[in-house]
Every structure is written in C-alpha cells, then in structure tokens.
Amino acid sequence: MTIPTHRAERVSAPAGSVEFDADVLVLGGGPAGTWAAVNAAERGARVVLADKGFCGTSGATAAAGTGVWYIDPDPALRETAMANREKLGGYLQDRRWMARVLDGTYQQSNRLADWGYPYPLDDRGRSQRNSLQGPEYMRLMRKRTKQAGATILDHSPALELLVDDDGAVAGASGVRRQKHDRWTVRAKAVVIATGGCAFLSKTLGSNVLTGDGYLMAAEVGAEFSSMEFSNPYAISPAFGSVTKTLFYGWATFSYEDGSVVPDAASKGGRSAIARALLQGPVYARLDRADDDVQHQMRVSQPNFFLPFDRTGIDPFKDRFPVTLRLEGTVRGTGGLRIVDDSCATSVPGLYAAGDAATRELICGGFTGGGSHNAAWAMSSGTWAGQGAADYAAQLGRATGRKLSSAGTIAFRSRSRRAFEPAALARAAQDEVYPYGLNYFREASRLQGALARLDAAWRDVSEADAAGEADVLRAREAAAMLATARWMYRSALARPESRGMHRRDDFPDLDDRQRHYVTTGGLDEVWTSVRPHADVAYAEAAE
Amino acid sequence: MIEVIDAERCTSCDICVNVCPTNVFDKTDGIPVIARQGDCQTCFLCELYCPEDALYVSPFADETQPVDVVALKRTDTMGSYRRAVGWTDDTRDRRGVDRSYLLFGH
Fold first, then answer.
1. Which CATH number applies to B2-103: 3.40.50.2300, 3.30.70.20, 3.40.630.30, 3.10.450.10?
2. Pick from A58, A130, A310: CB nearest B59
3. Does A334 contact chain B (CB < 8 Å)?
C-alpha cells in the first residue's frame, strides 16, 4: 500500500528559533510516541515528533529487552491471560480494555514482523513474539516513523504547551539542545508520549524520564489517575544501571555474612530485599540457573552481563552487591487519565500514550514487568495517534487561532531568588527514594514528606525564571516535584493496601475501595475517587 | 559511565553525538568530546551505535573509573556489546536468537 505523505511545513520564524505547522505533534520518541506518529501519518495527518533525546535510543525500552503481553487470539488463552492478572493488580483492571489491548498488541506485533523485526523461531519453527530487543525494536520504529512522513526533531525537549483561546491544546515549544535555539510547533492536536517519571534514579535508560509531559499537561488542567501505584523498585548490581528483574528469579539473596535473606525473591519477595537493605548490604548470586538457562540469558539479554563481564564477576558463581532502584511511574501504573477509546485526556486536543498515560485499565495497581507496559505502548500509541489525527481532521483549517504559552513554573520572574534545579531535584529524590517512605507507606510519614514537598513547591514557585542554560533542568526538577506530590497525595487517599501500594497502617485490601483515585493541580494538589467500571455497572443495574 | 573515546579508532563520524539520549557528547573540529559525563545514564547505546568500536562505557553508573586504554584494547571488550546483539557484519545471525520465551513464567 502506498500512503500519500503530507509533511509538516516549516514556516518562517524569528532568528534563534524554528517553527513548524502540523496537524499532530507527538512529544516523545519511544515506542508509544513512534506508534502514535506512524498511525497519525497513515491517517493523512502532517506529523512532527519531538524527542528530548534521540528517537531510537531514548527511553526505557531502547536500552533494554522487554517482554510483550502478546497472546494468540485463542479465547481460552486470552481468558487465562486476563484472569491471571486480576488479583495481582488489585481488581482494578477493565476487561474491555484488556481485550482491546490484547487485540491491538497482536496486530501491531504482526506489523513489526512484516516490517522485518527479527523475531526468533522456536524449535518447531514458530515465530515467538512475546519479547522485543529494545535497540533493534526502536531502531526499526525510528525508520518507520520517518518512512511514514513524520518530521523528527531529535534532542528537542518540549518545555511548554500552547493553547488557544478556548483552552484547547494547539502545539508546544521547546529547545533544540544541539542547535542552541528554540522550536515551536503549531498543531491541532498533541500526543503526550514522554514516558513516566523515574526521578533520575539511573534505572536502565530512564534518566530522560522525569515526568516532563505530566507537568506540561497539568499546566493545561489535565487529570491523573492511579498515581499511588508509583513505587516499584528494580533490582540491579549496587554499582550498575542494568535492571533485569526477570533474571533475579534464579537468584539467592544473602546478607554480608553469607546467610540467606528469608523470603527474599525477585517476584513476591522484593519487600524482604528492601527490608534487608534498610539494615545493610544485600548480595545476590544467580546460583539457581542451570547451564541451559545461563545460555538463554546470555543470548536474550547481552547487556545484563556487561556490568559483570567488565568487573570480572561471574554472576552465577560469585556473590555481588545489589540495590533497588526506583522506577516510579515508568513501571508504576499511574499517569494521565484516559477518558475514551482514542486515549484522549480530559483536555481538548490533548492525547496520552504509553507510560505517560495511566495503565490502570489493563494492569490495575501492578505491572510486574515490562510486558504489559510494552503492550500498552504499542496499543495506546496507535489509538492516540489515530485519535489525534481524527480530531485534527475534524477541526479543519485552524488558521487565525490566537495561541498562548501555558508554561508556568521556571518561566515566571517572581523575585530575585535563583532557580536551583539540582537542589530541587535532590529535594524530590530525598522524599521518593527511601524505602521507608515510598516502598513501605504510612500516614504520618507520607504527611511529613508531603509537607516538605509542598514547601519546596511554594519556595520554587517564588523563584525567578530559569536562565536559558538551566531551563530544561529546572522544568525536569519541577516535574519530579509535582509528580511526587501527586503520588503521595493519592497514596494518602487510599487507606488500604492494593497492587503495589502498601500501607503499613492499612495492610489489607478493603473491598469498599475498589475505585480509582484521580489527582491533579500544581499549587493546590487535589484528589477524588471514581468508581471502577464493574462497580458502576452493578450500581446502575440495581 | 562513558569513559573512553579512542582517538586511534574514532573517525569523527559524530554518530555518538547524535544517538546519545542524554546529550553527553559535543562535536568539535576533531573527534567528539565527553562534555557532560555526569549526565551519562550508563545505557551502553553509544557503544552499540559506534561503527568503529571506539567507545567504552564503564559499568559503574554513579562514579567515574580510571581506564587503562592500552590494556583495554588488548582485550575484546570494546565492541563486545555490538557483537553480542548482532550489530556487526559477521554477527548478524545473532539478531534473531532471543530466547526470552523460554525464560518467561519462571
């Protein structure tokens, strides 16, 4: 099929800036963003994709290998795949969305195969499609994004959204870090695919993921959902960045003196590791992997072995120190609230996909691994791209709209106090890294953290605008701070333990809280609850 | 963190400058420089994209490490990641050897 391509048009702009006129602007060039760009372009939209780093290496997927929630379209297999997840996710999934995502993931994976992704063949010659190698996958997605006619702006972080007089989102602007100038894209619809927020914890590939899209969306009034499910930690060597929790399923965990940490496991026993780390160092050895498994690990995830091979550690024989790195909402399930099947947010013209959006619809309060996030990225990216393109087409010629910039924090000159991005980022990290605050939650500790975070927000709200050199770091730090406040306000609004959210003061699941927590706001953070679809239907039938 | 751009092997193609997701390198009139080492997230992707095996990323994510480049080049470390994932001409068959499907469900 030949698709007529319509390219976004570069228009004249003042010196020191570039400007484009587009139908759809996609922010973020990971899996969700590239699927959105490809699908919007295939619907005839003129598309610009702006990535903070390099589309193809940027984000949590590109650096890693990921499972994919790919299930053959056999009703019994699909039923099992959905049912398996419900308890884990705290019964907050939505069956209709799970089925949609399984269909979407199946279709997009087949497209990847058609495009030449080198899926492995098993012993019986069947193509195995439940895993993707990040570098290979994202190199292919960059190529397809360009072939679809989208214009890619690399090293071009967005800093703020543009809105029209009615408050509809109409583009964004940012900086081109390597050209030392500014960019503006006027667009009829914007897809936020900027990923989650991992608070610069160096969990593999995630340091570009600082919640930038959340901050921009919050500035135009977007809502978030399930932000209390934001505290997964991944196992890595203490000195290194490579997190591959799956492989630690073959590990034995021990204390400094060599004795085994009771109940410690990568699955279902990570909290025992966190508790042990509060006391002192913890070591791992993958001594339960036999020769076959060792070989399969080597060929499946070569980068897992780089930290070991380069330090002379044999991870199958030697004990090595491990740590838990916060993955925040990258592997949590909270994010921008989705209001319809096209992945629209609560703000006109604004769509969300991938980890930037809530994954509550298919994961509830727990993801476990990359598999569901990968499936969600390709499915939600596809729908958001199509939805944004359709919205743009329905808007028709949008000439003559008067646009204004929606950015607030780090753009306003308020006082003679300097904005200090590094100190602000540390202030946010200090409240979200500690296991005693975030992994194991409790009302008074959460309130204490929130009081400090709110004070930091008030303080920085009164700081001067950040300078040209600092504005990106300032916005990142502000986004991390805002994210931490939505997380903990939502955590307080859920006095129970469900999914990954565990409260020391409410250790059990409470059937009456089978609902979603919505949050939002910047100067004043608010929360409310929405019923789960099943509960809403049951009440309607009474 | 990224520690080495080997001046002997580097051809100044600037691919690393382009592909680094955290913008760690800067172009120069000659070979690129590691301009913002502290921003490196130790993702190893620059190594993967370097066609000359001229880069070395130390596995230590939070601290810099002195590297003896002469000794390093006597080993097969530089380029080892690229070969392992099949991104060199003579290792292409490794691109389709992912065996993760045998490991899931453990």
1. 3.30.70.20
2. A310
3. no
